[in-house]
Each structure stands twice: as C-alpha cells, then as structure tokens.
Sequence to fold (124 residues):
Amino acid sequence: QVQLQESGGGSAQAGGSLRLSCAASGYTYSSICMGWFRQAPGQEREGIAKMNTGSSGLYYADSVKGRFTISRDNGKNTVFLQMNSLKPEDTATYFCAAADFCQRGFRTTDFLYWGQGTQVTVSS
Fold:
C-alpha cells in the first residue's frame, strides 16, 4: 500500500515562493508516477505537475508552466513542488498523488494513491 504525506504548505504574498514536499512509502516498483494536484473551494481538482521517478519526463499544466517545478530525491523517496511567482489564484489545497505509471493528461482517475493535502494561501 503506497502512502503519501505532503508538507510545506502555508501562506505567501503574491510573487513569493513556497516548496511542497511529498514523502512516499510502501511501493515496490523501481519507478512510479508522482503528481501534484490542487483544488480550490467550489472547483474541480486540477492536475498541475507530474513526473515518472524513473525517467526524466516532466509534465506541467499551462496554468503553472514556467512558475512551478517538480523534482525528486529518489534516495529519500520524496517529490517536491517548487512554486515561484505565486498568484492569489494559486490558493488551493494541494495534493500529492501516485500511480503505477504516467498516462497522458492529468486525470484524477489515473492516480490510485493520494495524500491528505496541504493548504496554500496566496495573498495579494
């Protein structure tokens, strides 16, 4: 059973930065697909970044491309989301998710495992 634990959420001013972490445990594959999603109140969950931990492919939604960076530390089984140039519209609960492999797009149904989420609030 894969378990995911996010950390690093909080508050920031517009234009500021935050870094989220997701510690993964319980998987036996040499690589898995790790993704970051976010959900604002009253809105659908949105996929924003993902990567396969065993390859170099990185994928971003247009809404965060050029501002957010997903990276990993395989030795610590941890995936990060560096968020720069934050905007008030980035305010949401951010979730880490995992799947056996990365598929096209950011469908929530492709990801079997989810963290509990961490709140990010950006003020203007």
Q: What stands out?
A: The CA atoms of residues 9 and 119 lie 5 Å apart. The first strand starts at residue 3 and ends at 7. The chain has a mean pLDDT of 93. The two ends are 40 Å apart (CA to CA).
